[in-house]
Amino acid sequence: MSRKIGQRLNSGVMSSAQSEWQTPTKLFAALNDVFRFDFDAAANASNTKCKLFLDSKDDALGDTSWRTKLAKKYRLKKPHQIGTGWLNSPYGSIVALFIRAVIRQSREYDITVVVLAAARTETRWFREANEAARYRIDLYQRLRFTEPGCAEGFVFVDASRTSQKRSAPAFPSTLFVFTRRDDMPVYDLRELGFVIDLEMQRKAA
Predict the structure, then answer these.
(1) Burial bucket for residue 5 (CB in 10 Å: 0-12, 13-18, 19+)
(2) Is 6 exposed, middle or buried (0-12, 13-18, 19+ CB in 10 A)?
(3) The CATH classification of domain 25-204, taken from the options 3.40.50, 1.20.1070, 3.30.420, 1.25.40
(4) Which in 21, 40, 130, 184 has the greatest CB count within 10 A?
(5) How far apart are CA 171 and CA 65, in angstroms?
(6) Alpha carbon 72 to chain centroid distance?
(7) What's the Rg (C-alpha) of the chain?
(8) Are 85 and 41 in contact (CB under 8 A)?
C-alpha cells in the first residue's frame, strides 16, 4: 500500500494516517506459491512484493486497464502475459475505491486479483466485494503488522493468547479472490483459512 489517508480506524489499533503497512512475508509466500503474482497493484519501491508494481503516481483507481498501465510504465513487450495481481488494500475509507477498481479490472479486463483486507463485514465495500469475488478466504489467525523500515517481524498471531493481544490488530483479515478462471487451486490454502466458493453460494441461493 502506498496511499496516506487522514482518517482513523474505529478500532484505534491501526491508524489510516499511516497506511503503508507491508504485506506479511510468510503470508505472501504461501499465496504466491498458489497464484504466481505478476504485479502488486498498490505498492512502492520499498514495500512491493513483486517486480512490477503500481504506485500512487500510476492512478490505479482510474478506468484504464492495469495491464496497459504496467506495459507503459515498464515498456513490456508482452503485456498480455500479465494476468494476476496482488493487492494489500489500504486502511481507511479509500479501501472502498480500491475494491471497486479491482471489480472493474477483473470484469472488464479479465485480470485475476487477490485482495488482503480487514474483515469489516459491516461495511458496504465488504458486501460489494463479497458479491463480486469468486472466492473468500477467512484467515484463521490474525496478522501482526509493523511499519515500513522496521525489522522484519511479520508472523501469524493467535489473538486469544494474552501475551500477543497487544500486537494483534483489533480485527481479523480476509482474502478475496477476483477471477474468471476455474483452475485456481485455492483449496491448497485451507491451512491458512476457511475457503468459501462465493460463486457456488450465489448459484445455490
Answers:
(1) middle
(2) exposed
(3) 3.40.50
(4) 40
(5) 32
(6) 23
(7) 16
(8) yes
Among residues 52, 114, 63, the alpha carbon closest in space to that of 89 is found at 114
d(CA 71, CA 132): 26
User: What one-letter code names the amino acid at 117?
Assistant: A
Grid cell of 121 as nine digits: 463485514
| Claim: this prediction has a pTM higher than 0.85 | no
pLDDT tens-digit readout, 174-203: 999 999 998 889 999 999 999 999 999 999
The number of angstroms, rounded, from the C-alpha of 143 to the middle of its chain's C-alpha atoms is 13
Residue with cell 483449496: 187
Contact 135, 191 (CB under 8 A): no
Taking the C-alpha atoms of residue 143 and residue 157, their distance in angstroms, rounded to an integer, is: 5
Q: What percent of the chain has a predicted confidence (pLDDT) above 70?
A: 77
Planar angle of CA 24, 30, 33, nearest 5 degrees: 135
DSSP string of 136-157, one letter each residue = EEEESSEEP---TTSPP---EE
> How many CA within 13 A on the CB side of residue 13?
15
DSSP result, 33-63:
HHH---EESS--TTT-SSSEE--GGG-TTSS
